[in-house]
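Weekly sync notes, structure subgroup
Attendees: PM, AL, DS (notes)

Item 1: joint prediction request from the bench team. They want all two components modeled as one assembly rather than separately. Inputs as received:
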Amino acid sequence: MTAVSEAAAPPAAAGDAVPMVSIRGVGKSFGTNEVLRDIDLTVNKSEVVCLIGPSGSGKSTLLRCVNFLEVYDRGDIRIEGKLVGYTEGTPRRRQSNRELRTLRRNVGMVFQQFNLWPHMTALGNVAEALVQVRGMDKAAAAARARQMLDRVGLAAKADAYPARLSGGQQQRVAIARVIAMEPHLMLFDEPTSALDPELVGEVLQVMRDLAADGMTMVVVTHEMGFAANVADKVAFLDHGRIAAFGTPREVFHESAEPRVRQFLQTYHERNSF
Amino acid sequence: MKFSVILDALPYLLGAAVTTVWVSLLGVLLGQVIGVLVCVARQSGNRAADIAGGVYVSFFRGVPLLIQLLLIYYMLPLIGIDVPPLVAAVGALSLASGAYVSEIYRGSLNAVPHGQSEAALALGFPTATIWTRILLPQAFRISVPALVNELILLLKASSLISVVGVAELTRTSQTISASNYRPLEIYLAAGCIYLAINGALALFGTLLERRLQEG
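Output from the run, pasted for the record:
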């Protein structure tokens, strides 16, 4: 019996062959200003990839291209093999809103400013997409939302409105709102940059737990400690290009790229006292 | 001054005040509907809808309400539509208030941070749901003080519908003072009734704001 069910299951290697995210030759310009140039990046299933670099280097723009909140002009971005934002074939056309919605259902995003909806409770924020997008009934959505809040350690705050929560708690609710949808991929856009320093740790801990559970994550961050300890790969962006890419060790300790060295130097100086 | 005439006229004045209140409320409610539709049309990104909404707002904000009333009252019969005074009155008040309300909502929508709809977009919300569940409820909260202000202005402006013969508070005051020759007492009483109604509305607005702030 076991032999039969094993044979029926698709070979694991075939599923892993298609990367979660595949970015090939992506470029984007605002007028004459080229913000992304010829970006190549692959994110495999269950990998955590951190995008680091000076502000204005294009890392947030690149992240926002992955779920097409930002439109890229050149190249291909594929999630699980499916082209993002455009139809296959040439000349390519923009996908319809409906096609984009289908794609975005499997891609969660966590924002720097949390973007919780202030007129809904923590529970309401998490349950809303389950009802409106997944079509769950209200009771089932509320039950699931409660589980998710429990997972980020906020079960006790279910009935609190965002204005009554600390920044760290708001960001954890925002993460619960995303994981409730069971995304295949999560994008984090500087998730701790708007937080007071003492609140950063609780959000990073939730992100560590997600990574340990095998979530595929692309994280734009200034938290070098997180990048060094949690990321499988680190991409250093500068002026719209990936100037260095590799394991944290390769980028942080072994990279000869002067821009990486200079960037890390300013970090060390700022954090030493 | 002879205050007994006020007492005699009071039942009629209060009855007329009820007409004033419900005509104004009806005007504001229909104005809300028109205002939201015009506002959404103008923000939809559809050029024709934007222009149509813009023309509508310019006309009804730019032409005095008294002229709008008279135009509706005299013009519609010309094209074969016979309107009772009350319908013309409510129609004019709704159309005028719709123009102001759409601008109030437009300002409030601009005050809702862009990230609010972006979060919904990233979760895969349909556009219509983003409007009904995320944007409009927040815009409504932001606009409550301005909407209450609009309601008070409309209630006072409703005195103008006396010209087409609707027996609301102002028209009734004119009729009574024309028959008892006591205009001062009667208009003073009418003024006090307007003041009392608007005081109650302002109080209601404050309570509503406080309630909405809690949640």
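Discussion: Confidence is low (pLDDT under 50) at residues 1-15 of chain A.
Action: AL to compare against the crosslinking data before next sync.
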